[in-house]
Amino acid sequence: MKETSKRTVWTLVALAAGLLALGTTGFMVYEHESFGNALYTTVILLLTHFDDRSVTDTPSRIIVLILIVSSLGLIAYLLKWLAEYMMGLSSNVRRLRVKAKVEKLSGHYIVCGLGRVGAQIAREMKHEGVAFVALDRDNAKVEAVAGEGYLSLALDSTDEAALHQAGIDRAIGLVACLGEDSANLLVTLAARSLNPNLYIVARANRSENEVKLKRAGANRVAMPYQIGGYHMASMALRPNVVDYMDVVSSPNGTNDLEVEEMVVGENSKLAGHSLGKSLAEGQVGATVIAINGADGTSRVRPTGQERIYPGDRLIILGSKHDLTAASELIR
Question: What pLDDT does residue 195 have?
């Protein structure tokens, strides 16, 4: 039991004892009752809030009123405390369940920060069916996303112990999207030192901090204001192109087209063959719109004659069904 809960319990006990002492002493003095009868009368008044004896003496009536009103307030406070205590127990049980699930995760992502940007990232990952755990110091934000079925923990992302609890040694990626660049820098440094193979995407509010975050170990740095400005400018200059991209990328779009990146595996049916021939044999309806080679080269709008090698990353456009079929062929 927490220290505050212990203090609350002792406070309630002290108040109840005080009311018992007041009633017992008062009835012994003003009603001339024995100690046993005075104690019995006081307990009955505190529990039933009814004066079955109908005392007529003014001091006794005052004592009766004090006992009844105080008892009602005491019971109301006790019920409130019990409700809060039970809610706390429920939250503790939920946290234990989340920790148990996180301990079983492997190859997952860690989202640090559940502000407007972080919450949107969590929604996108949930839509993509990606395993992830979200961290935030604000318990209210954690509880809010937990209601949507996300794995979330009320922890400080800048603390290495918190990253360990999130399974950083088993994670494949981390998104640092806290509100301050300095906090994202600390998260990036800690994450890179704990897992050298981690893929890290960090948020930057100021352009001069992009280089610092990359030096700290971030693979990519995103600036929400820059992205938002570019998107708004594109909406003004190329509205039809933006509408098409929104349809493709939006999880709520009426079109089922999606864009996905797939890595060619060592045992892939594509490995060592030309792109067009392999896809034709696989009868896949998805379209490869770009190839990022394992050697660092990039090819946009491939003709189909390109030879594919293990480690190449293919950017593919298609429906969910076609992407699933392409995945079986490529990976």
Answer: 94
Q: For the domain bounded by 3-95, which CATH number is listed? A: 1.10.287.70
Element at 177 (helix H, strand E): none
Going across the sheet that includes 173-176, the strands are 152-154, 132-136, 109-112, 173-176, 199-203, 220-222
Question: Which tokens is 270 given?
Answer: 């594509």
Under 8 Å CB-to-CB from 136, ≥6 apart: which residues? 112, 113, 114, 115, 118, 142, 152, 154, 155, 157
**Spans of all domains in the chain:** 3-95, 106-222, 256-330
Contact 110, 135 (CB under 8 A): yes
CATH code of the region 106-222? 3.40.50.720
Round to whole Å and give the CA distance between 309 and 142.
Answer: 43
Q: Which two tokens stand for residue 170?
A: 């088993």
Burial 93-121 (b: 16+ CB within 10 A, else e): eebeebeeebeebeebbbbbbbeebbbeb
Q: Is the pLDDT of residue 200 over 90?
A: yes
Does residue 325 register a pLDDT over 90?
Answer: no
Fold of domain 256-330:
Alpha-Beta Plaits (3.30.70)
* pLDDT exceeds 50 at position 135: yes
User: What 3-state DSSP class applies to 109?
Assistant: strand
Residue 210 CB neighbours (<10 A)? 18
